[in-house]
Q: What sequence folds into this?
């Protein structure tokens, strides 16, 4: 049987001739051209507030930390043969979107409005995005700082999707999908909700820190990916428990820590609104853990560490759109219900419907984000944020209707465009690893390395179907079977 070479680089294979290589080359080419074009605006004037600027710089760093935290959170939940695969996808999203955002992503999301649907190309390459504030978005903060804060949201959103497609998506397909999805789904949706002139913003939809833009879009896209890719070969056949729960709990706490920058930073200033968002964020996370564990205890008879970690994330997702619009008591309700509903989605709905959302990206982010957006329409009050609106409990049923419209628009747009992107990518390169590659694991088949080369955890040579005595031999046998003995030598133990 003839096998395709899946090593890091084959001596007879030119990466530039493959679709993913061409895409990466194009990104770098555009970057080089932009650098030579013209400089950004001049130095900032007196309008910049140093306190607000320092606050948002720190908030941006906290949000950046969330993507490595997500890598740990997801990495602990996959099987040990796939941990580097999921971490690599998160790191690749950080790199790819950092470039895409500067070249064209920020301009499409926040640039001058076109037809209330998309930003223009005026700010391509950050041209005109300088040290002076942009009063439309943040009057006391340099425009570049605001843009970089928004970049961190753009990075983590496609990284969240990987939780639904974990353990079976090819890395080249992931790269192409991520670049196209960020451009065709995230950037337009961000403009609809946050961009000046965006139609949902003009309609009055509230999304303080990304319940619709980040979590609904990522969760729904994850569900579409899971359905298109199909279930993992072992799903429903054998238990697939997390390989390292302490890693997952560490990731969840890093996400919780970073979420203070995510939500409080969205006040865009060191002020009372940021303080309220900080309080509601922490309150909802705590309430959601209790809500998740209560349901889990009733369903399975025991509360679990995985349930607590997942509950925290569910609560943080649910409060994200509401953090700067609701009171702390409302955050208790939003978080508690969010934790319970997301647990039911994961433990009951997913099992009955039979889809393989590997790490529950849809169950936590799609469901939690939807509940949070609707809850904003119920609990929002101008007493917290005069720039917002009163919700249903304060006599304004209209806001709840607007929030439902926003949720429906995000669901429909994201699902249709995500499906189309997957179909286009599948024409350029296979979406899913082969059965043999899946059995060996994405660490070896996609990256030619192992997270645990010196342990006995990888003692079953699935590529050959025989027992081996050393994990290094697994890598050697697998890589050799794929025609890459030199790459396999990286794992050979002395």
A:
């Amino acid at each position: 049987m003839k096998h395709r070479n899946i090593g890091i680089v084959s001596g007879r294979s030119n990466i530039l001739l493959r679709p993913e290589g061409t895409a990466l080359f194009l990104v770098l080419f555009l970057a080089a051209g932009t650098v030579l074009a013209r400089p950004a605006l001049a130095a900032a004037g007196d309008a910049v507030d140093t306190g607000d600027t320092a606050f948002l710089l720190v908030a941006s760093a906290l949000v950046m930390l969330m993507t490595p935290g997500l890598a740990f959170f997801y990495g602990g939940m996959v099987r040990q043969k796939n941990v580097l695969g999921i971490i690599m996808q998160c790191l690749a999203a950080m790199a790819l979107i950092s470039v895409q955002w500067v070249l064209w992503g920020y301009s499409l999301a926040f640039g001058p409005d076109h037809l209330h649907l998309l930003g223009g190309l005026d700010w391509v390459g950050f041209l005109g995005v300088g040290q002076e504030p942009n009063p439309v978005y943040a009057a006391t903060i340099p425009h570049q700082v605001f843009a970089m804060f928004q970049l961190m949201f753009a990075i983590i959103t496609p990284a969240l999707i990987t939780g639904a497609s974990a353990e079976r998506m090819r890395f080249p397909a992931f790269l192409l999908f991520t670049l196209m999805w960020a451009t065709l789904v995230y950037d337009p949706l961000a403009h609809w909700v946050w961009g000046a002139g965006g139609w949902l913003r003009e309609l009055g939809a509230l999304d303080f820190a990304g319940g619709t833009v980040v979590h609904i879009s990522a969760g729904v896209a994850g569900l579409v990916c899971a359905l298109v890719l199909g279930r993992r070969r072992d799903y429903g056949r054998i238990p697939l428990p997390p390989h390292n729960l302490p890693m997952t709990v560490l990731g969840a706490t890093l996400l919780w820590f970073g979420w203070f920058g995510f939500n409080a930073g969205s006040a865009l200033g060191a002020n009372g609104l940021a303080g309220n968002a900080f309080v509601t964020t922490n309150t909802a996370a705590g309430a959601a853990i209790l809500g998740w564990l209560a349901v889990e205890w009733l369903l399975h008879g025991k509360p679990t560490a995985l349930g607590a970690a997942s509950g925290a994330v569910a609560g943080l997702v649910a409060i994200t759109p509401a953090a700067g619009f609701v009171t702390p008591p409302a955050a208790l309700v939003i978080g508690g219900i969010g934790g319970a509903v997301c647990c039911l989605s994961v433990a009951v709905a997913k099992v009955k419907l039979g889809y393989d959302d590997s790490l529950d990206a849809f169950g936590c982010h799609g469901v939690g984000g939807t509940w949070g957006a609707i809850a904003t329409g119920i609990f929002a009050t101008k007493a917290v944020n005069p720039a917002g609106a009163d919700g249903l409990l304060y006599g304004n049923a209209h806001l709840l209707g607007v929030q439902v419209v926003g949720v429906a628009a995000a669901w429909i747009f994201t699902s249709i465009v995500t499906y189309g992107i997957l179909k286009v990518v599948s024409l350029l390169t296979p979406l899913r690893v082969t059965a043999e590659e899946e059995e060996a694991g994405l660490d070896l088949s996609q990256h030619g390395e192992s997270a645990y080369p010196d342990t006995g955890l990888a003692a079953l040579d699935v590529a050959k179907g025989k027992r081996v005595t050393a994990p290094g031999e697994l890598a050697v046998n697998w890589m050799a079977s794929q025609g890459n003995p030199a790459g396999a030598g990286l794992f050979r133990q002395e």
